[in-house]
Each structure stands twice: as structure tokens, then as C-alpha cells.
Here is the input.
Amino acid sequence: MDFLPVLNKRDFVRRYRDGEFGNASPTWDSVEGFLSDKASTTSDLFHLRNRVSSGPTYYDVPGDLVDITLRKALAEGVKESDLYVSQMAPTALTTLQGEIQQTPDGLYLYYTRVKKPMRDALRESAHEARGIIALEMLRAAFTVGDFEWMGVLLDRYPDHVLEFSTYSKAYGTIPGCRVVWWEVRSY
Here is the structure.
């Protein structure tokens, strides 16, 4: 079966929400959908994510403040149609996160162990690993199932970058998985 390349961030978000890339953080397609699902009544924290590459994002938003955060984003010029909502991952449990890609020279890993949302964590401290070192780092950090799924994603989406976070306990939409695949994008 052939898998289509990810064309852009909007294409990715639609496919992510549909579960194409495996384990994910629970996600709602819009703030309106999130609010109507009554998720805003939980004590969980949420993340207003952007469908525009490198667009503003809003972390650690209490469910009952998502609508207020939306109004703030709109006042900053963000389009409501560009935003979607995910549950905040347990960043305090982060063990490894970053980007993986298969290059002509072998596997490349751009990573951090900082326990913050990935964008902030990579800004604070980022490292690189290549080839067998990258492979063994990932094998040590991932469960067997998560490691095998990484291989599936690399096979299905050549010339793509896999953005991930690994946690010390299971988290996400697929029971038993510790790796959340945040983004698959062409490079």
C-alpha cells in the first residue's frame, strides 16, 4: 500500500486527528468541537496548537480557560480556523524528544531530554546523533512496539521528519504506547 506524502501542516493535522500516524495526544479539530465535547470541564491542561507551521501555540491552558485563550489568540491576529486543541502531554515524564529522519547518510536524530514542550526544550538544549548511535538511543528510549512503529513510519513516509516525545509511562490514544508522534512532515 502506498502512503501519500504529507503535503503541508493542514494536511498533517487532518491525518493526525484521524490516527494515521499512530499514538497521539487526544485532539479536537477546533476549539468549538473541544468545548462542545465538555472536555473543558476536566481538570486537565490543554494545548491550542496551530495548523500554520511555526505559528503561535498556547501551552498549559486549563480546560475552563480555552475559550479565553482563543479570544487572546484572535486579538493577536490568529485565525480561529488555524487552531485546534490537544490535551497537554505529561512533559514532567519526558525521557527523550525530538526529530528523526532517514537521510542518504543514515538515521539522523535531533533531540533533547529537557522536560518542557518540545519547541521550548529544543531551544534550551539540543543535540544530534547519527547512524547506529541514534538507532541505539531510540531503541533504549522506546518500547519494542514504539520502536517497531517508528520503522513503519520511516518506511511509509520516506523523505519525512518524524517529530516525537517519549514518556516514562504510557500516554496517548493507543494503550501501552509511550511515544507520541507529534508531526510527520516532508523535509
Observations:
- Residues 91-186 form one domain.
- The beta strands are 27-28, 45-50, 58-62, 83-87, 94-103, 106-112, 127-130, 160-167, 179-186.
- The mean pLDDT is 95.
- The radius of gyration is 16 Å.
